C-alpha cells in the first residue's frame, strides 16, 4: 500500500470516531400543531430528542396510533454498536500500519458490509415500529402504517416526516468514500499501472523479434 492509501485509511478511521460524539441519524416530524417540529436523534448508543421533551412527545403521539414506545434500553443494537465501531476503528488503524493490500481489502469489505447492514437494520426497525400496531389504539385507520422514510420525506396523516443522516452519519459516509477511493488506488489503479508497465517492458522484445 502506498503512503497515500495508508493516510486515507487513517483519516477514515479517525472520521469514524466522530460517531461517538455526534448523532448518526435524525428523524423530524412537522405538523400544524407542532410548527417548530419534533426531532429524534439516533446515536451510536442511545436515542434522544432534538429538544428536551421531543422524545417524550413523540412517544405520546405514537400511543394514540398504537405504536410502541421508543425505549433506547430496549433496542439491542445500541448495546453492541459502540463495540463494532470501535473494532472497525482499531483494525483500520492496524491495517494502515501493516500496509498490506489483502488485509486492507478485507477490512474495507467488512466496513461496507456493516454500513449496509446498519441501514438495513434501521429500515427493519422503522418497519416494525410503523406496522406492528396495537389493535386497541385510540386512532385506527385500516391499512395505514406509520413507517418513517429511510431517506427523504413522507407524509404520515397530518405529519410530514423527514429522515436524513446527522453529522455523525455524514462523517461515516465520508469515511466510506475515502476507503472506496483508497481501494481504487490500491487495486484498480495499480493493476492498470502494472498492465501499462508490462506493455512498455514488452516493446524491446517485440522490436528484437
Topology, pairings included?
Elements: H1 3-16, E1 25-31, E2 34-42, E3 47-49, H2 54-65, H3 77-98, H4 101-131, E4 152-156, E5 159-165, H5 167-208
Summarize the structure in short:
The chain has 209 residues and is α+β, with helices and mostly antiparallel strands. It contains five helices and five strands.
Radius of gyration: 23 Å
Order of strands, main sheet, comes to 3-2-1-5-4
What's the number of extended β-strand segments? Answer: 5
End-to-end span in angstroms? Answer: 36 Å
Poorly predicted ranges (pLDDT <50, ≥5 residues)? 193-209
Shape: elongated
The number of domains is: 1
Question: On the 0-100 scale, what is the average pLDDT?
Answer: 86
Helix content: 55-70%
Q: How would a textbook summarize the main sheet? A: 5 strands, antiparallel
Kindly name the structural category.
Answer: alpha+beta
Beta-strand share of residues: 5-15%
Helix-strand topology string: HEEEHHHEEH
Our count of helices gives 5
